[in-house]
């Protein structure tokens, strides 16, 4: 029997409050309104950004359904939806592409004005499509994928090749694309260059893959957790270091290692201290540093402007600079053509209901990416 037009009851991982575990609940998911799409989720990765919500480092309204790195199948569509149909395999997009705002129209832009990076938690009409135990449950970054069914706006969904394995290409919905694009599109890493990557989680490893694809000849991975080094070397790092191994500032250690010639640095941790360390570590004149880690909300950072005065470039990017609806299907095609390998990023696969276990693996530093299967 078709579920189109009806409320769907299904299981979701609800966060009732910050700093609490996920609670698997039965929720109601309303049918999609005009220009909206209801998606059955097949697989969803666990990204550190989801944890930022739990820890209140990123704004969100509670109760909330987080998760933003997923693959699914369109279950039904609202009025006026033209670009996807029921049965299509899709990736929900935490970064929309409305096609009309200044960022969408500019060839260099990608942060669409319709993005919800400030935690509004509602769809375009100001309401949510989720309820649980009679209470309104909020959306997260236009996606909310830790649920069997979700509703997103049409501008937040990319149709992908039907042949794509859902439990792998979900990573193209965030972690992989963010890191890979940070190197290829935002940093514009050049052949023969020297790069340093701070933070060797799923996103940092994807930065390394991007640096390697761009032809960097030296790629230095930096992490406090040395267990992360092995994987970093496999995906393309030429050497790895821990800031704990020297009493000197990491910028000095890198300058000594490279004869003061680090061209590009990437901050992929999400801490002010590493943002400044990464900036100071690229060449004082022609170096470029890219902020990829999500900055803690409501905190200001002070820095010595001399770091920029001498010529460094300091940039940031959301979703690796990719235009989401245009580029996600192309990245899936590139994956199917074996242009990059996502297997290296996937360390654990768990049934959706073991989501709390998945987060424990992130906290203990054991996982790169855990994929939840529905
Ligand atoms: N810009 C975007 O669009 C975007 C998208 C996805 C994720 N992010 C952000 O990217 C960051 C990384 O995400 P992830 O999923 O790879 O996280 P992760 O937690 O898996 O990886 C972070 C790594 O940093 C290491 N680390 C912690 N403190 C460190 C320090 N002081 N020096 C060096 N290394 C340190 C940890 O050991 C870990 O290996 C997060 O802040 C996340 O929110 C941003
Ligand atoms: Zn993410
Ligand atoms: Zn737009």
TrEMBL record:
Signal peptide: none
Start and end residues of each Alcohol dehydrogenase-like N-terminal domain: 34-161
GO molecular function: all-trans-retinol dehydrogenase (NAD+) activity; omega-hydroxydecanoate dehydrogenase activity; zinc ion binding
Function, as annotated: Catalyzes the NAD-dependent oxidation of all-trans-retinol, alcohol, aldehyde and omega-hydroxy fatty acids and their derivatives. Oxidizes preferentially all trans-retinol, all-trans-4-hydroxyretinol, 9-cis-retinol, 2-hexenol, and long chain omega-hydroxy fatty acids such as juniperic acid. In vitro can also catalyze the NADH-dependent reduction of all-trans-retinal and aldehydes and their derivatives. Reduces preferentially all trans-retinal, all-trans-4-oxoretinal and hexanal. Catalyzes in the oxidative direction with higher efficiency.
Organism: Dipodomys ordii (Ord's kangaroo rat)
Reactions the enzyme catalyzes: 16-hydroxyhexadecanoate + NAD(+) = 16-oxohexadecanoate + NADH + H(+); (E)-hex-2-en-1-ol + NAD(+) = (E)-hex-2-enal + NADH + H(+); 12-hydroxydodecanoate + NAD(+) = 12-oxododecanoate + NADH + H(+); all-trans-4-oxoretinol + NAD(+) = all-trans-4-oxoretinal + NADH + H(+)
Alcohol dehydrogenase-like C-terminal domain ranges (all copies): 202-336
One Pfam family per UniProt: ADH_zinc_N
GO cellular component, one term: plasma membrane
Keywords: Cytoplasm, Metal-binding, NAD, Oxidoreductase, Zinc
Cited InterPro entries: ADH-like_C, ADH-like_N, ADH_Zn_CS, GroES-like_sf, NAD(P)-bd_dom_sf
Localization of this protein: Cytoplasm
Superkingdom: Eukaryota
Homology family: Belongs to the zinc-containing alcohol dehydrogenase family. Class-IV subfamily.
Protein name: All-trans-retinol dehydrogenase [NAD(+)] ADH7
SUPFAM superfamilies: GroES-like, NAD(P)-binding Rossmann-fold domains
Subunit relationships: Homodimer.
EC number: 1.1.1.1, 1.1.1.105, 1.1.1.66
Named cofactor requirement(s): Zn(2+)
Biological processes, Gene Ontology terms: ethanol catabolic process; retinoic acid metabolic process; retinol metabolic process
């Amino acid at each position: 029997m078709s579920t189109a037009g009806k409320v769907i009851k299904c299981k979701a991982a609800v966060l009732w409050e910050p700093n609490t575990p996920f609670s698997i609940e039965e929720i109601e998911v309303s049918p999609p309104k005009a220009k909206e799409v209801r998606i059955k989720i097949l697989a969803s990765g666990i990204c550190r950004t989801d944890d930022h919500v739990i820890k209140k480092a990123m704004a969100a309204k509670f109760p909330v359904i987080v998760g933003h790195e997923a693959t699914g199948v369109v279950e039904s569509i609202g009025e006026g939806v033209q670009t996807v149909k029921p049965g299509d395999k899709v990736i929900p997009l935490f970064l929309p592409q409305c096609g009309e705002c200044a960022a969408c129209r500019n060839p260099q832009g990608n942060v669409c004005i319709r993005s919800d990076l400030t935690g509004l938690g509602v769809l375009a009409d100001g309401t949510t499509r989720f309820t649980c135990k009679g209470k309104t449950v909020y959306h997260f970054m236009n996606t909310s994928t830790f649920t069997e069914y979700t509703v997103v706006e049409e501008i937040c969904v990319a149709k992908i090749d039907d042949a794509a394995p859902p439990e792998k290409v979900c990573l193209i919905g965030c972690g992989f694309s963010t890191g890979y694009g940070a190197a290829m599109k935002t940093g514009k890493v050049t052949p023969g260059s020297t790069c340093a990557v701070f933070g060797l989680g799923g996103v940092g490893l994807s930065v390394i893959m991007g640096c390697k694809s761009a032809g960097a000849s030296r790629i230095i991975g930096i992490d406090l957790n040395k267990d992360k080094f092995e994987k970093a070397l496999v995906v393309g790092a030429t050497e790895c270091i821990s800031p704990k191994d020297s009493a000197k500032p990491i910028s000095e250690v890198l300058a000594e290692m490279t004869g003061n010639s680090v061209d590009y640095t990437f901050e992929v941790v999400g801490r002010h201290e590493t943002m400044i360390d990464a900036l100071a570590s690229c060449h004082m004149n022609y170096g470029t540093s890219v902020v990829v880690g999500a900055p803690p909300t409501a905190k200001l950072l002070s820095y010595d402007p001399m770091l920029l005065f001498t010529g460094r470039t300091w940039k940031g990017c959301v979703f690796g600079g990719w235009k989401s609806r245009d580029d996600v299907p192309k990245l899936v095609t590139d994956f199917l053509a074996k242009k990059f390998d996502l297997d290296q990023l996937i360390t654990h696969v768990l049934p959706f209901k073991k989501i709390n276990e998945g987060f424990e693996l992130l906290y203990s530093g054991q996982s790169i990416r855990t994929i939840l299967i529905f």
